[in-house]
Amino acid sequence: MAIVKVRDRAQITLPADIRDELGIEEGDFLEAVVEDRRVVLVPQKLVPKFEEVELSDEGERMLDEAEADVAAGRVREYAGVEDLIADLHNNATAGD
User: Is 2 part of a structural domain of the chain?
Assistant: First the structure.
């Protein structure tokens, strides 16, 4: 059993043998959860919020067009999906 001490600013140090066993390295993230009045630390793997993608020439053209539409104010904002669908229906029947 490993005993750790809570230090200044509520910091603790995980013993090296535990870090080694779990492959925990400096900079890794741990989720802290309470289970039956115990603190359980669960190693986590974070993924980038936005992964880099490579667009085709057509994709680049479409993105440029969309950004130009936003810059020119040719976009609408909706409170929810229902409002968007209603607007699509209105536009579809207006063209009849």
Answer: no
Q: What average pLDDT score do residues 29-33 get?
A: 94
pTM greater than the 0.85 cutoff? no
pLDDT digits (tens, 9 = 90+) for 43-86: 998 887 888 889 999 999 999 999 999 999 999 999 999 999 99
Can you tell me the distance from the alpha carbon of 56 to that of 64, in angstroms, rounded to the nearest whole number? 12
Q: Taking a C-beta distance cutoff of 8 angstroms, is the pair 39, 45 a contact?
A: no
Residue 15 and residue 55: Cα distance in Å, rounded?
A: 46
Which of 67, 68, 93, 89 shows the shortest CA–CA distance to 78? 89
**43 in helix, strand or coil?**
strand
Beta-strand runs (E) in 13-96? 29-35, 38-44
Domain that holds residue 19: 8-44
CATH number for the domain harbouring residue 15: 2.10.260
